[in-house]
Amino acid sequence: xxxxxxxxxxxxxxxxxxxxxxxxxxxxxxxxxxxxxxxxxxxxxxxxxxxxxxxxxxxxxxxxxxxxxxxxxxxxxxxxxxxxxxxxxxxxxxxxxxxxxxxxxxxxxxxxxxxxxxxxxxxxxxxxxxxxxxxxxxxxxxxxxxxxxxxxxxxxxxxxxxxxxxxxxxxxxxxxxxxxxxxxxxxxxxxxxxxxxxxxxxxxxxxxxxxxxxxxxxxxxxxxxxxxxxxxxxxxxxxxxxxxxxxxxxxxxxxxxxxxxxxxxxxxxxxxxxxxxxxxxxxxxxxxxxxxxxxxxxxxxxxxxxxxxxxxxxxxxxxxxxxxxxxxxxxxxxxxxxxxxxxxxxx
Length: 347
What we know:
Layout: E1 2-6, H1 11-22, E2 26-31, H2 40-43, E3 47-51, H3 57-63, E4 69-72, H4 86-107, E5 111-117, E6 125-128, E7 132-134, H5 141-145, E8 161-163, H6 176-195, E9 198-204, E10 206-208, H7 221-230, E11 236-237, E12 244-245, E13 247-249, H8 250-262, E14 272-277, E15 283-284, H9 285-296, E16 302-303, H10 320-326, H11 334-343
Parallel strand pairs: 1-2, 1-4, 2-3, 4-5, 5-9, 9-14, 10-13, 11-16
Antiparallel strand pairs: 6-7, 6-8, 12-15
């Protein structure tokens, strides 16, 4: 297949390009290089690089000539800065996606794999000892200031226990970035309904590995911890460090994209099929910090009790649908991936 990868010079996109080229696909990359630089795999002749903005309709139309499928990785990512950067998130994520989908319809390109995120769920799944499965509201500043980090039952106020979230969970975005990812999924679903195309949304969980951005507001927690250790400083862990996440290696994420591009359509009646792309082996943020500190021989993490409004407490995924429908299973164990990540050169 001839595949267009938007954002193909970025952290995840560059690995997707490598996987696609390695699988024998013909790849064209569209990237404005605003948050990345050309990677070797896009400049050595194995993939064509077009430097342009995905929101530029003329450039996107040109990039779609001869294309069979699109792997849409381009996005502004991260929790961001409250509401001050909402216009930028919407312009880059939602308007850019809308321009891409319009151009795909005009060019009769009928397959899309969209990079989505676990943030579409908001808080993950929870159970109350008295009321069973419940959905908590946003955590209050009063509780957070008092160090009460676990969500409470909206009916009785008891502390909840985290459960596993699957793709059928209601979408509940709790920050601007999350809202734009939900919008991207809805736009892709609309495109698929109208055109008869096939759309897949890969909901990435906490991705880490080579080329993870560092020292920006949009970098992952693993990058922040490693940068601190490289400076000889203790990693600073927010809340109590017991937040549960599913950390998945970027090479596994890239492989999931290859499988999704080559897979069959979802069940009849689903204009968009979503998949959790996760390891299925969750851990805590504090455990990640400790593992990186041990690998680098650095100071032990400091648990600060600080928090960010808009952060969620626990998001633990079921990767079962991706396993059964796509044949995807994460191959990089967390311990091995973190040990390698600790010693990789920062980019």
